[in-house]
């Protein structure tokens, strides 16, 4: 089954309307919760008056921060983890100060959605406006207000990485390219916004929280801590989720508020985020400004890279140095960089907090490095493809050590791969030479062709662990329970393929269940391209253990040695004698009482194990774009796109290709149109899908994909992550392609998205 592409198990149900998302869930007597949000970016709260709202018909509850009582006033830290950098606290409801537009100030619960809307309007908030810190430059100014009490400035945390002596190496370079480059702030825009339903289960007394979260176990622990409950009295159930992309990973105040209201009122409470709330309040990502230098030898070889950057992390630096460390560690990419230094500074501003949006710190790094490579190639008179060929880490260099240390504390060591060969496959897939010929044919015209390349090396599959339970039912069905949830990735299909392959069961008999903290005890959440690389090996080793138990029992039933037992397609037989067979279900029935399992210490065909990777796996990829640029109207049209990625070993190639295509669409969006924009007063200007542009189907060509497989050595299945990979190089490839089309006119692209207005300004300069 591994390497096959059966149709996804989930799709029949979802496509025929059988999906159940948070807003589809109902409970008798359910109440509606809404949030009063700050209208100011930075202000003291002089008064939050909820009395008028409480007096309205149907209003059951109206809280400001002073009404929280025993509920924790600040967001708890899950798993006892310590904050990195300076101390800060994010309030569940703002008490004295608001730090961004949209921050929760009060909460109202009512019988109907209409009564709720009236009550929210009735809450009165008085502000004393303070200066907004709408950019990192404003936040770093000597005269800037301090966003968090006790801080000497607005720097939250600094990430660093260094190898060799960049200063000395740069002094001997034939060419030094120095550039200021900027990546925009982005929103993930999942098709389903966030939502929470909480209620007290009458039979068990447990507080049940259904949420569209990516982190059910973190949510369980945070809710328990916030309400002062034992963890065992909180059960998180994640239904179908319509996209997450990372920003549904953190725990938000709304999840605590819904749970707290249900806990205090003894009635079900539901909150569903509006699209405007989602764009304003769900975590953003990607906003970084870089000052970078790269030195080249005369032949185009990289001599050194020296860079600094500032990351706008919004009001609360909940990611610590995780995202900036990703940027530092990924900027050298797939190239041999003997001397390297980078310093990333996270700065708080009066914007919505940062979350880890798909690829989390890597697209920014690739944008900078790939722009530097193209600019260097142009100044050296080299083709952009050729300068990359001369600098790739070669197969003979593997396992390649960059000299940096990953955020898990382990020295970075690239997995086996052939970067040059994969790159050539991407050029052929576009096809590169053909587009260069078309470009020459249109040289000097109004509608010009540009070709852009972008490469990356990606750390994937961060631990510390994931686990799985595999149980064979006497009916013959195989149940797999895991601690990670899906938001459209196809876990129910791919992990069933692994279980079927390792156990010997029929794929159709395997059912994967996730998202219920009562069914599986621990999980570290979905994100970081980690599910296949962590849960996959966990399912595999657990299924193998169950298979070993089955062979013991079957040997007793078939009167043969355990090593002579074969399990194929849920049939158990003696090797070479397929007619001497019993069903896997019958073996499971016998295993309940079989003495053959005495040595194992427990009955039944089931097991639970956990997989702890030593460190991350490293995957390589390339994307290539051909664009048409109209230098009169400044319209940019994407004509062709090619994607090559090394997934290690693809469990289901169809799903892997689809993941890469979906990610590429997001990367292309970042390159051409997407940007979260605030004005100087910290007010969000892109608060609807009329203002925040995302790609439409008719704006994308066919996204061709080739998989270049080189199994990882970090896990027994050879898997490398893929979930985030497609989103990494798109903005860089687009920027390189556009500049390639207009470079002879003196235009340079130093930030994305490359909108018609930005291109017009670049051409005017």
Tell me about this structure.
- Helix content is 27%, strand content 25%.
- By secondary structure, it is α+β, with helices and mostly antiparallel strands.
- The strands form seven sheets. A seven-stranded mixed beta sheet has the order 3-5-1-12-9-10-11, sandwiched between helices. A five-stranded mixed beta sheet has the order 7-15-14-13-8. Strands 18-26-27-28 form a four-stranded mixed beta sheet, with helices on both faces.
- Helix 9 (322-330) links the parallel strand 14 and strand 15 (340-347).
- Helix 9 runs parallel beside helix 10, helix 15 crosses helix 16 (584-591) and helix 17 crosses helix 18 (730-742).
- It is globular and about 80 Å long.
First-residue to last-residue Cα separation:
57 Å
- Rg is 27 Å
Biggest sheet, open or closed, and with what strands and sense? 7 strands, mixed
Class by helix and strand content? alpha+beta
Question: What share of residues are in beta strands?
Answer: 15-25%
What's the overall geometry? globular
The percentage helix is 25-40%
Q: Mean pLDDT score, rounded?
A: 97
What's the helix and strand layout?
Elements: H1 11-15, E1 31-37, E2 43-49, H2 51-54, E3 59-64, E4 97-98, E5 104-110, H3 113-122, E6 124-129, H4 136-140, E7 155-163, H5 166-171, E8 175-183, E9 195-200, E10 207-211, H6 216-227, E11 234-237, H7 253-265, E12 269-272, H8 275-281, E13 288-296, E14 302-312, H9 322-330, E15 340-347, H10 362-380, H11 384-389, E16 401-405, E17 411-413, H12 419-429, H13 432-441, E18 447-460, E19 466-472, E20 478-482, H14 491-503, E21 510-513, H15 531-558, E22 565-568, E23 571-574, E24 577-583, H16 584-591, E25 606-611, E26 617-630, E27 636-645, H17 653-672, E28 703-707, H18 730-742, H19 756-764
Parallel strand pairs: 1-12, 10-11, 14-15, 20-21, 27-28
Antiparallel strand pairs: 1-5, 2-4, 2-6, 3-5, 7-15, 8-13, 9-10, 9-12, 13-14, 16-17, 18-26, 19-20, 19-25, 22-23, 23-24, 26-27
Helix pairs in contact: 6-7, 9-10, 10-18, 14-15, 15-16, 17-18
């Amino acid at each position: 089954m591994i390497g096959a592409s059966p149709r996804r198990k989930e799709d029949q149900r979802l496509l025929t309307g059988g999906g159940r998302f948070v807003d589809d869930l109902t409970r008798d007597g359910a109440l509606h919760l809404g949030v009063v949000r700050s209208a100011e970016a930075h202000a003291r709260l002089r008064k939050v008056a909820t009395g008028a709202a409480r007096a309205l018909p149907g209003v059951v509850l109206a809280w400001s921060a002073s009404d929280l009582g025993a509920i924790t006033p600040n967001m708890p830290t899950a798993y006892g983890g310590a904050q990195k950098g300076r101390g800060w606290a994010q309030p569940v409801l703002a008490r004295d100060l608001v730090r961004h537009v949209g921050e929760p100030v009060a909460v109202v619960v009512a019988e109907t959605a209409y009564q709720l809307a009236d009550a929210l309007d009735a809450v009165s908030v008085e502000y004393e406006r303070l200066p907004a810190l709408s950019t990192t430059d404003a936040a770093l100014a000597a005269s800037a207000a301090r966003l968090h009490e006790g801080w000497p400035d607005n720097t939250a945390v600094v990430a660093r990485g260094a190898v060799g002596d960049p200063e000395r190496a740069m002094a001997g370079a034939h060419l030094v390219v120095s550039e200021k480059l900027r990546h925009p702030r982005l929103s993930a825009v999942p098709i389903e916004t966030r939502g929470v339903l909480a209620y007290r289960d009458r039979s068990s007394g447990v507080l049940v929280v259904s949420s569209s979260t990516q982190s059910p176990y973190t949510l369980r622990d945070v809710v328990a801590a916030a309400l002062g409950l034992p963890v065992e009295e909180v059960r998180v159930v994640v239904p179908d989720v319509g996209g997450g992309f990372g920003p549904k990973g953190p725990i938000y105040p709304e999840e605590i508020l819904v749970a707290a209201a249900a806990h205090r009122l003894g009635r079900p409470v539901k909150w569903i985020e509006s699209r405007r709330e989602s764009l304003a309040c769900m975590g953003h990502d990607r906003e970084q400004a870089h000052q970078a230098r790269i030195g080249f030898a005369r032949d185009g070889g990289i001599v050194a890279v020296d860079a600094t950057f500032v990351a706008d992390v919004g009001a609360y630096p909940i990611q610590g140095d995780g995202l900036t460390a990703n940027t530092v560690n990924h900027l050298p990419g797939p190239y041999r960089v003997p001397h390297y230094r980078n310093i990333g500074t996270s700065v708080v501003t009066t914007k919505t907090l940062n979350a880890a949006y798909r690829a989390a710190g890597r697209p920014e790094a690739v944008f900078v490095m790939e722009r530097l490579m193209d600019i260097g190639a142009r100044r050296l008179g080299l083709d952009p493809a050729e300068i990359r060929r001369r600098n790739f880490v070669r197969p003979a260099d593997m396992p390649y050590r960059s000299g940096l240390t990953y955020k898990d504390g382990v020295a970075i060591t690239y997995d086996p791969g052939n970067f040059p060969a994969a790159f050539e496959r991407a050029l052929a897939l576009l096809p590169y030479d053909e587009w260069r010929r078309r470009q020459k044919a249109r040289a000097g015209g109004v509608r010009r062709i540009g070709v852009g390349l972008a490469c990356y090396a990606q750390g994937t599959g961060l631990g510390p662990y994931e686990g799985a339970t595999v149980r064979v039912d006497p009916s013959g069905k195989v149940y797999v329970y895991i601690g990670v949830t899906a938001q459209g990735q196809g876990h129910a299909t791919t992990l069933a393929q692994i279980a079927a392959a390792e156990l010997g069961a029929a794929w159709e008999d395997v059912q994967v269940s996730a998202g219920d903290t009562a069914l599986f005890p621990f999980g570290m959440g979905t994100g970081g391209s980690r599910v296949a690389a962590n849960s996959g090996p966990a399912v595999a080793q657990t299924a193998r253990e169950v298979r070993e138990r089955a062979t013991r029992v079957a040997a007793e039933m078939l009167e043969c040695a355990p090593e002579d037992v074969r399990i194929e397609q849920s049939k158990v037989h003696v090797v070479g004698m397929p007619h001497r067979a019993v069903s896997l279900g019958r073996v499971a029935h016998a295993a309940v009482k079989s003495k053959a399992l005495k040595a194992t210490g427990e009955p039944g065909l089931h097991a639970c194990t956990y997989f702890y990777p030593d460190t991350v796996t490293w995957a390589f990829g390339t994307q290539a774009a051909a664009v048409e640029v109209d230098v009169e109207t400044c319209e940019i049209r994407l004509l062709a796109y090619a994607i090559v990625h090394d997934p290690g070993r693809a469990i289901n190639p169809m799903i892997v290709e689809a993941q890469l295509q979906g990610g590429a669409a997001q990367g292309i969006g970042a390159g051409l149109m997407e940007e979260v924009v605030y004005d100087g007063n910290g007010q969000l200007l892109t608060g609807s899908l009329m203002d925040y542009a995302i790609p439409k189907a008719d704006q994308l060509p066919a996204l061709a994909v080739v998989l270049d497989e080189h199994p990882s050595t970090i896990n027994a299945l050879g898997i490398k992550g893929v979930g985030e990979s497609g989103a990494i190089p798109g903005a860089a490839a687009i920027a390189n392609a556009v500049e390639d089309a207009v470079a002879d006119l003196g235009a340079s692209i130093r930030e994305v998205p490359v909108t018609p207005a930005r291109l017009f300004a670049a051409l005017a300069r």
